[in-house]
Amino acid sequence: MALIHRATIRPTKAELLADWVPTQPWGEPESALVGAYRFDDPDGEVGIEAHVLATADGHWLHAPLTYRGAPLDGAEQFLVCTMEHSVLGRRWIYDAVGDPVYALVLASVLLAGAVQAAELVEGADAPREPSVRVTGSRSGADDVPPIDAVRVSSDRTSTVMEVSDELRMVVCRRPGPEATATDREHVLTGTWSGLEAPVLLAYVA
Question: Whole-model pTM above 0.90?
Answer without folding.
Answer: yes
